């Protein structure tokens, strides 16, 4: 059997396209935030609404998009073990499983949207804008989950190029549509404000899903014809997805509590938090590109039972990601003021943002380690341990720091301190587990 290539060149071939495809979803939200934040009238309220809805939608997407990692892990492990042909009807069944989950979640939230956003401390015009924005964007949810499932299949097949192409097209289209629909084109398109941003995202998600479907059918031998009985790997997919579901509930509990506490401080604070959060999410997905390379290759190495190369891969990808984080921190320091002005021009909002942005930069090296190890453990199929780590990080790290900081009146600084502790907890726990479980296997 040919040994898996974990050279610098091979990791870049997987990581760079994964970075571009990974930042597509945060670009949709960040572009919406930047464009609506510069609406002449009600810019702050629009930015706050996009922040609240964006955080809630990200929570839903992250909860169910974890099936992408499970699909990728199963396909890559079978590829490494030389059993790819045995998967047969698994891809189609996995995709329909993803779509069914997304539709259930869509309708479980659609009719309670006002109550949900009130719970997140949205009120007045911010609440009204949040409802308008969500009621359009939510229909892109099944489209995104379908696209992510296809990305999982491509990743399992060691291919991040086609997901990159799909994501790049979607991101570029979304940026163009945002400006056209939010501000309008004189004589052609009436300005739609925040609703225009929602339509821009929805159309972009539909186009990405369509291209993903075409590429899946044209570039692979995978059929979307649903056949029974269920493939044996579906049971493992459901088990992995359930553990990742519980993990993501813990993850998004932290993110939703953060947005709720920020919203409770006032509209300028939630607007400033939205700017910081969108930059953080963008960098997180940027960093996750190298994590994706680790995810793809670790699953294949596990299938080959090549634990020596697995350890070398883990060291390499962590080192590369720390380098990426260092570059992002430097860019953040150099563009400290322009980044804020990109999203909003209100002096109070910018003052609050500039007072917390350094916390985002402090978080990036911890992100690099946590997200890299997280992706590698997904490739290894360690979904149960990932679940336990997230539960521990949220219950014993994030929540105590968040409410202690609230008691001490630390404001947004306290919220970001809780997020840093939360990420650092995950990084340390995963590194300890890897050393204890997988390094000893090298000698066997």
Automatic annotation (TrEMBL):
<keyword id="KW-0406">Ion transport</keyword>
<feature type="transmembrane region" description="Helical">
    <location>
        <begin position="271"/>
        <end position="297"/>
    </location>
</feature>
<dbReference type="GO" id="GO:0005886">
    <property type="term" value="C:plasma membrane"/>
</dbReference>
<dbReference type="InterPro" id="IPR048279">
    <property type="entry name" value="MdtK-like"/>
</dbReference>
<feature type="transmembrane region" description="Helical">
    <location>
        <begin position="410"/>
        <end position="432"/>
    </location>
</feature>
<feature type="transmembrane region" description="Helical">
    <location>
        <begin position="133"/>
        <end position="154"/>
    </location>
</feature>
<dbReference type="InterPro" id="IPR050222">
    <property type="entry name" value="MATE_MdtK"/>
</dbReference>
<feature type="transmembrane region" description="Helical">
    <location>
        <begin position="385"/>
        <end position="404"/>
    </location>
</feature>
<keyword id="KW-0050">Antiport</keyword>
<feature type="transmembrane region" description="Helical">
    <location>
        <begin position="318"/>
        <end position="336"/>
    </location>
</feature>
<protein>
    <recommendedName>
        <fullName>Multidrug-efflux transporter</fullName>
    </recommendedName>
</protein>
<dbReference type="GO" id="GO:0042910">
    <property type="term" value="F:xenobiotic transmembrane transporter activity"/>
</dbReference>
<keyword id="KW-1003">Cell membrane</keyword>
<keyword id="KW-0813">Transport</keyword>
<dbReference type="InterPro" id="IPR044644">
    <property type="entry name" value="DinF-like"/>
</dbReference>
<comment type="similarity">
    <text>Belongs to the multi antimicrobial extrusion (MATE) (TC 2.A.66.1) family.</text>
</comment>
<keyword id="KW-1133">Transmembrane helix</keyword>
<dbReference type="InterPro" id="IPR002528">
    <property type="entry name" value="MATE_fam"/>
</dbReference>
<feature type="transmembrane region" description="Helical">
    <location>
        <begin position="161"/>
        <end position="185"/>
    </location>
</feature>
<feature type="transmembrane region" description="Helical">
    <location>
        <begin position="352"/>
        <end position="373"/>
    </location>
</feature>
<feature type="transmembrane region" description="Helical">
    <location>
        <begin position="237"/>
        <end position="259"/>
    </location>
</feature>
<keyword id="KW-0472">Membrane</keyword>
<dbReference type="Pfam" id="PF01554">
    <property type="entry name" value="MatE"/>
</dbReference>
<dbReference type="GO" id="GO:0015297">
    <property type="term" value="F:antiporter activity"/>
</dbReference>
<feature type="transmembrane region" description="Helical">
    <location>
        <begin position="94"/>
        <end position="113"/>
    </location>
</feature>
<feature type="transmembrane region" description="Helical">
    <location>
        <begin position="197"/>
        <end position="217"/>
    </location>
</feature>
<feature type="transmembrane region" description="Helical">
    <location>
        <begin position="46"/>
        <end position="65"/>
    </location>
</feature>
<dbReference type="GO" id="GO:0006811">
    <property type="term" value="P:monoatomic ion transport"/>
</dbReference>
<keyword id="KW-0812">Transmembrane</keyword>
